[in-house]
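The passage that follows is intended for readers who have already worked through the single-chain material. We present the inputs for a multi-component assembly, then the predicted structure in tokenized form, and finally a short commentary. You are encouraged to pause after the input and sketch how you expect the pieces to fit together before reading on.
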Amino acid sequence: MVTPEKSLLAPMVRKLEIWSPLDEHDKAAILALPHRPRRLGHAQYLIREGDKAEYSSLLISGFAFRSKVVAGGGRQILAVEIPGDMVDLQNSLLGLADHNVQAMTSIELAMIPREAILSLAEASPKVARAMWHETLVDGSISREWTANVGRRDAKARVAHLLCELSLRLKHAGLAELDNCELPLTQEQLGDCLGLTPVHVNRMLKLLRAEGLIGRTKRSVQITDWKTLAAAGDFNSTYLHLDLEGRPLVDWD
Amino acid sequence: MVTPEKSLLAPMVRKLEIWSPLDEHDKAAILALPHRPRRLGHAQYLIREGDKAEYSSLLISGFAFRSKVVAGGGRQILAVEIPGDMVDLQNSLLGLADHNVQAMTSIELAMIPREAILSLAEASPKVARAMWHETLVDGSISREWTANVGRRDAKARVAHLLCELSLRLKHAGLAELDNCELPLTQEQLGDCLGLTPVHVNRMLKLLRAEGLIGRTKRSVQITDWKTLAAAGDFNSTYLHLDLEGRPLVDWD
DNA sequence: CGCCGGTTTGAGTCCATTCAAGAGGAGTGG
DNA sequence: CCACTCCTCTTGAATGGACTCAAACCGGCG
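Having made your guess, compare it with the prediction:
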């Protein structure tokens, strides 16, 4: 194996390889990217809207999210990032941050200078393609969120988000569909969905009453993923996880 | 000039050059891309969700939009494309369409095979970077739309959308800020904004009463862009139009 | 223990929706 | 040229889903 398990960037190789095949030389180049580890505490900002973006980071552990704040003070969460995600490829390549990136839990990340990413992309078309692909999937998720927030009622929105997160976690090997830790407060769920925390609470209660989810202390437990997906009008196509046409979920 | 004005793809060079500098060789390669012209009538589909995406198209004239349909039959418009935009770089690179693309007016486009785009990207890092950048800006717009739909009230949403479209048209040299043709029906505006056409109508009436917009037969006329931008909580940063730090709009 | 952030629940309000009906244009065909 | 249709816009009235306000509850932690 060329991939030394010890490197912080190993998950990046693993993720990019999903999008586009990489040869040994490409993988080595990724692992050779300059980077430095960083830890952020709960709620700390990685970057703020309007900042110059100098780094792009790989999320090693913990959860993060992107957000924007509108005039009245309302906050919209735009994406939830899980371990293995490239956080902020967007801001860093565009140069100027158009949104905030913030730690949801305490997190560990590997910060890679923007310039290093760019020159690797220039040197290796395959890696460039894989990173491009990663941002395209990100865009696809963003479109689905727009549709979710714009055209589904509160109950479906909540169900949809739970399905997306659990499925992404499963795909990353971090959880099972029917038992996953989602460290989102109800206020954060609301900010993802364009709802108030109070209303999120009521919708969770409703889903609980219907037996689709259960409760553990602080995290959601999904007890009936399939029905939840139906309730949330959830179709995983937009996550582009099943590249060879094999669906990720065995339905029966 | 290397760029023959006669080529259908000239606008593509013009657009990509904004994102990343291209040398003569790159420009020639873009113009040499295989492509065939196509016309679509009002409301015709370019591609539907679930289709295999074989082509990526450059919009030559007319307007198009992307959309998704949710369970209840509700439609969410995800983006409005104007002449000069690369329509469907997203679907085509991801291979499987995760949303519809549809003509809003009758349109002309140049269809470029997916494979040709990919091999050009592989051959020329600069062009690849520019196309990547284009999709990143698209993602940025998508995030702003999520925030718009999720966290702004109806009046602000409408104002925000009008500002975005007029500014993009101005940037493309197709209109002035305070006099622009937007061929969207009120139903389509509603589908962009997560509102019903009836309510869009009321909001337009309101904005008209405040003197921010006027009415011509079928298209919106903006009479006070600056105030409209304030009403819509509009900040153009997310469009990434002002690369050198020069704002596109002279405020005073 | 007592605070504190997050959750839960209730009551009343409001923004946007639904339902419904009419008006205005653009295009078509007799 | 007029009648007719279709689509979009417009307006009113009633409904409802989500919000606001407010209070109580709960678990974790210093």
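Commentary: Residues 185-187, 197-198, 201-202, 205, 218 of chain B lie near DNA strand D (CB under 10 Å from a C1'). The longest strand of chain B covers residues 55-61. How closely did your sketch match?
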